[in-house]
Design goal:
418 residues, 62% helix, mainly alpha, MetI-like fold
C-alpha cells in the first residue's frame, strides 16, 4: 500500500506527464497484443485430442517476444513511478526474451493457415475468439464497402440488400446483392459490433485492419526514433565534447544528410527494396539514418556549452575520466532537448510512413498501414476518418509526451539548479 501511495503521489505531481505516457503505452500495447485483439483464428478451441491455441500457434519468434512485452508496455505508467522501475525496466524484457526463446524451441514448425480457414474447419467444436474475430487479410465478398454496422444505413436483409440505402455506392459499379456469410465466431449479420468501423472493397473488417495497421505504423515511429536517438547521441556527443577535427567531420556529415529530402530518400530505398513483410524495418532504418541530424545538432550545441561549465571543471579537478564526466554529469543536463526531439521525430516518422503507404510505395497487401488504409478507400468516409483519427491520436500522444518530459527533465522549469 505504501508503494501504491507513492505511485499515486507521483501521478498527482505531474498528471499531464503520466496521462501522455499512459496514452502512448496504451497504443503501443494494443499494437503488441494485436494477435489477441483482432484475429480470425480462435484464441482457444477444444478438440478430441485436447485443447489448442490457434492464435498463438501462428506466431513466429519475434511476434512472441513482442506479445510478451504487451503487459510490460501497458503497465509502464505504474512501474515507471515506483522505486522498482530499474529492475522492472530491465528484468521483464529479459524474462520475455527467455520465455520467447523457450517457446520457439518447444513449439512445432510454423504452418501457414489461409485467412478464415480456422472458421471453416471449426465445425461444432467449442472455441473462444478474439474481441475482434476478424483477421487483417480475411475477406468476405458478401460485404464489400459496408458502412459501420451501428449505423441504420448498414442494415442488410436476408437477401443481402441494404434496407436503407440512401444513394448508390460511389465506389464504382455495385455488385449484385448476395446473402451475407456469417462464419463461426462472428457477430450476427446486423449486430452493431459486427463491423464497428465498416469494411473495405474486399469485405475485410476495418477495425481489425486499423489495429494491425497501427501496429506497423507505431513500430516504424518507435524504431526510427530509437535509431535516430542512438546515432545522433553518439555522433553529436563526439562532435560537441571532442571538438576539433571530429566536430568538423560530424558537421559535414550532418550537412550531407540534410541535402537529401527525407521523403524521397525513403521512396528511393523502397523502390529498390520492395514492400514485403520486412518493409516496416526498412522504412524505420532509413528514417532513423536520415533523422539523426536533429538529435546530433542539439546535443552538440548543449555539450559545447556544458564542457566549460563549473560542475564539469570541478569533476575534472577531482580526477574523473572524460567518459564518466560525459555520462554522469554532462549528458543528463543535455537530455531535455534530446527527449523532445526524439518524441517529435517518432510522430514525424509515423506521418512520413503513412504518406509513403498512401502513395503506394510502402507496405503491400496483406500487410496494412494507417496511410495505406486511407489510400484504399478515399471515396468512403469511414475509410478515411477512423485510420486518420488513430494516426492523429498517436502523433499527438508522442508530442504531448515529449513536452511533458522536457518540463520534467529541465532543472530550470523545476526551479532547481544545473
Amino acid at each position: 500500500m505504501a508503494e501504491l501511495r507513492r505511485v499515486i503521489g507521483s501521478w498527482r505531481e505531474r498528471p499531464g506527464l503520466w496521462a501522455a505516457l499512459a496514452l502512448v503505452c496504451a497504443l503501443h500495447a494494443l499494437g503488441a497484443a494485436a494477435p489477441l485483439v483482432a484475429n480470425d483464428a480462435p484464441l482457444w478451441m477444444g478438440t478430441p485430442a485436447g485443447w489448442r491455441w490457434p492464435a498463438l500457434e501462428q506466431l513466429e519468434g519475434g511476434e512472441r517476444f513482442v506479445l510478451l512485452l504487451a503487459p510490460w508496455i501497458l503497465a509502464a505508467p505504474l512501474w515507471a513511478a515506483s522505486r522498482w522501475r530499474a529492475r522492472i525496466a530491465l528484468g521483464w524484457p529479459a524474462l520475455a526474451l527467455l520465455v520467447a526463446l523457450l517457446w520457439q524451441l518447444l513449439a512445432g514448425p510454423h504452418v501457414f493457415i489461409p485467412a478464415g480457414e480456422w472458421k471453416r474447419e471449426l465445425g461444432g467444436a467449442p472455441a473462444l475468439f478474439a474481441p475482434i474475430p476478424f483477421g487483417q487479410s480475411e475477406t468476405n465478398p458478401s460485404e464489400p464497402w459496408r458502412p459501420p454496422t451501428w449505423l441504420a444505413s448498414s442494415k442488410i436483409d436476408e437477401q443481402g440488400r441494404y434496407e436503407q440505402r440512401a444513394v448508390p455506392s460511389s465506389g464504382g459499379l455495385e455488385l449484385p446483392a448476395s446473402r451475407v456469410e456469417v462464419r463461426a465466431g462472428e457477430p450476427a449479420r446486423n449486430a452493431p459490433l459486427r463491423h464497428a468501423l465498416g469494411t473495405d472493397a474486399q469485405g475485410r473488417d476495418l477495425f481489425a485492419r486499423v489495429v494491425w495497421g497501427a501496429r506497423n505504423s507505431l513500430t516504424v515511429g518507435l524504431a526510427s526514433a530509437l535509431v535516430a536517438l542512438v546515432l545522433g547521441t553518439l555522433l553529436g556527443g563526439l562532435a560537441g565534447w571532442r571538438g576539433g577535427r571530429a566536430d568538423v567531420l560530424v558537421s559535414r556529415a550532418i550537412e550531407l544528410v540534410l541535402c537529401f529530402p527525407l521523403l524521397f530518400a525513403v521512396l528511393l530505398v523502397m523502390s529498390v527494396g520492395g514492400g514485403g513483410s520486412a518493409a516496416v524495418w526498412t522504412i524505420a532504418l532509413v528514417l532513423g539514418l536520415s533523422g539523426w541530424t536533429g538529435v546530433a545538432r542539439l546535443l552538440r550545441a548543449e555539450l559545447l556549452r556544458l564542457r566549460e561549465a563549473e560542475f564539469v571543471l570541478a569533476a575534472r579537478g577531482l580526477g574523473f575520466s572524460e567518459l564518466r564526466i560525459v555520462i554522469r554529469h554532462a549528458l543528463p543536463n543535455a537530455l531535455a532537448p534530446l527527449i523532445v526531439a526524439t518524441s517529435f521525430f517518432a510522430g514525424t516518422a509515423m506521418l512520413v510512413e503513412s504518406a509513403i503507404s498512401y502513395l503506394g510505395a510502402g507496405l503491400v497487401e496483406p500487410e496494412s498501414s494507417l496511410g495505406g488504409l486511407v489510400r484504399g478507400g478515399t471515396e468512403h468516409a469511414w475509410m478515411v476518418i477512423f485510420p486518420g483519427l488513430v494516426l492523429a491520436l498517436a502523433v499527438v500522444a508522442w508530442n504531448l509526451l515529449g513536452e511533458e518530459l522536457r518540463d520534467w527533465n529541465d532543472p530550470r522549469l523545476r526551479g532547481g539548479g544545473a
